[in-house]
Amino acid sequence: MGGHPLVELIGVTKTYRNGAGALREIELTVQDGEFVYLIGPSGAGKSTLLRLLYREERPTRGSVIVDGVNVGRLRPRQIALYRRRIGVIFQDFRLLPQWTVYDNVAFALRVTGASPRDVRRRVAPALDEVGLLHKRDVMATQLSGGEQQRVAIARAMVHLPRLLLADEPTGNLDPIAARDVHRILLDLNARGTTVMMATHASQLVDNVRRRVVALEGGQLVRDATTGGYAHGG
After folding, report:
1. 0.70 exceeded by the pTM?
2. What architecture (CATH level 2) is domain 1-85+163-233?
3. Helix, strand or coil for residue 7?
């Protein structure tokens, strides 16, 4: 573990325009190199917390700091540059169906202005890391759900972010595919990437015993260093 904070939420409250409160007075610090599960019932605020870190949302009150950057204060032109430092994986994959596996991953580099040489140098290792190099020329629509999510992981990691945010990455997968995706995330963490994973998958959480942060009604109700999914676990 790196031993210094990578993520800090200081007194963070998020209230939407309709008056609904998503988060209330959240205090949370994640150290460089940690693997953190975000758990809680639907509507607890897990996705909102990740969106604040990715700068899809801004806090109503409080500060969201990632790697020394106060994310809520970023100007519009700074957001794209900031997001190059963050990897994000969604439940619904968000691949471009008319493109090959290779081009879906390469796209994450091309939009940042990477040279063709850099694209060639980095895409193949990313696909190899998730076990899909042999399917580089296959269309995204021809993959299983588990394979699509592994492509999404390769796309998120191809620009070597220090922080990976995963919002229910196994939610649409069968148990075997879910374990495969989970293993890849753990492997990435073992190599130094900080991972924050929102999940309802209690068995995955219980099997690994990493840090567990539980939200309920927009509040942080539990923070266990090596916890399980259930209270007291």
Report:
1. yes
2. 3-Layer(aba) Sandwich (3.40)
3. strand
